[in-house]
Design a protein that fits this description.
Number of domains: 1
Shape: globular
CATH architecture: 6 Propeller
Strand content: 35-45%
Mean pLDDT: 89
């Protein structure tokens, strides 16, 4: 009897659900939700930093200050992040600058000297102690060491070729060794000290070795063609993701050589029980489901004047091209653009590169350097005699 009762009850519920659960509410008046991707682009930060003659380099310091190299006045100028000038220091023939973890500034320049009665103007690297007189900063700094080309590897009288060489850039490593980019006209791969077009490894201001690169075609002693800039993975404020023992020797370099289709490359340092080696890193290229552009895209750049790496764990790579007047951004895999925001309809990288010749706030005229600190990108816009700052829209709170 009970089973007949329950069967009749279930039948009643399903045949009269409108009366039991209530009348179904129409939903025609509800708008279908629209999922619009957040705009991803770099926006300029004002005011523009002006008053420079020829700003050729800009770096973030481990002391959280911003340092600018003005080749027009041959001065290094320090600023806080708000743009307040803190000090100046003159370096003869000033070019590129960097800061190691001892907080010394390393600067490329020239040194006028007389050797065996003959005057020379030779490439030099100056080590500048910011705390030499007890008051920290450029205003109390002193040069404590000078490395003059070519006397770190030979003792004979220099030649005109030595004067034509140049130290193009410096990149300190996590352990305070550092790489130096050198260019010049004497490029025999077997000459003592390596060819002029080289990346050199220094330790305690002493040359250790020119860098030789292994590829699937063999070992190249003259791998670097017309090199112009270099960036190690040691960048302030150093991410814990960077292991100084494992990948502290990795670096990016750029080249102006017209014979080099890949003018920005990453070189990996590998160390094992059998020795150490340098190899070209494999980065993603051609997968348009993941990005529309790639660091390793053939002929992507014309004159990549500078490259830098974000030190905050985002692993972004920034390149400025002085001929294309553009700023490019890539992620650590070599994909152009910014990683898409949470909730985006696609996981494809969103292009954030920009530029073009002009004086607008998102235009450049022969940009010479790029830096990154605390979610802000700095560009030394040399042709417009200014420093521009940008922030990605994803980084605004």
């Amino acid at each position: 009897m009970k089973s007949i009762y329950y069967s009749l009850l279930v039948l009643l519920l399903f045949t009269s659900c409108d009366g039991f659960f209530g009348v179904e509410t129409p939903t025609d008046f509800l708008d279908e939700p629209q999922f619009d991707d957040q705009t991803v682009a770099y926006v300029p930060i004002q005011p523009v930093w002006e008053g420079f003659v020829d700003p050729v380099d800009i770096i973030p310091g481990w002391d959280e200050l911003i340092y600018i190299a003005d080749a027009g006045t041959e001065e290094i100028i320090s600023y806080d992040q708000a743009g307040n000038e803190l000090g100046r220091f003159r370096v003869p023939g000033l070019g590129k600058i960097s800061q190691d973890r001892t907080l010394d500034i390393l600067a490329t320049g020239r040194k006028d000297t007389v050797i065996n009665g003959t005057p020379f103007s030779l490439p030099a690297i100056y080590r500048i102690d910011l705390n030499k007189t007890g008051d920290y900063g450029l205003n109390s700094a002193r040069i404590v060491n000078t490395i003059i080309h070519p006397f770190f590897f030979k003792s004979s009288t220099p030649t005109s070729n030595d004067e034509m060489a140049a130290f193009e850039a410096i990149a300190p490593m996590p352990d305070n060794k550092y790489y130096v980019v050198r260019s010049g006209v004497s490029n025999s791969p077997n000459q003592f000290g390596g060819p002029d077009n080289s990346v050199l490894l220094f330790d305690a201001d002493t040359l250790v070795t020119p860098i030789f690169v292994s590829t699937n075609l063999g070992l190249f002693r003259d791998y670097f063609k017309d090199p112009r800039s270099i960036a190690s993975v040691a960048q302030p404020p150093q991410s814990p993701a960077v292991d100084g023992r494992r990948d502290g020797g990795d670096f990016f370099f750029s080249s102006f050589s017209s014979s080099n289709a890949l003018r920005v490359q990453k070189i990996n340092f590998n160390e094992s029980d059998f020795g150490s080696s340098y190899n070209v890193a494999n980065l993603i290229v051609g997968d348009t489901s993941r990005a529309d552009g790639f660091l390793y895209e053939a002929n992507k750049f014309s004159k990549p004047a500078d490259v830098t790496v974000a030190g905050d764990g985002t692993n972004y790579i920034f390149v400025v091209d002085s001929e294309k007047d553009s700023l490019y951004q890539f992620n650590g895999l070599g994909l152009e653009g910014a990683n898409p925001p949470q909730g985006a309809r696609s996981d494809k990288n969103i292009r954030a590169s920009f530029g073009g010749r002009g004086q607008g706030l998102t235009q450049f005229n022969t940009p010479k350097a790029v830096a990154y600190l605390d979610q802000i990108v700095y560009v030394a816009d040399a042709g417009n005699n200014r420093i521009l700052r940008f922030k990605l829209t994803l980084d605004f709170e």
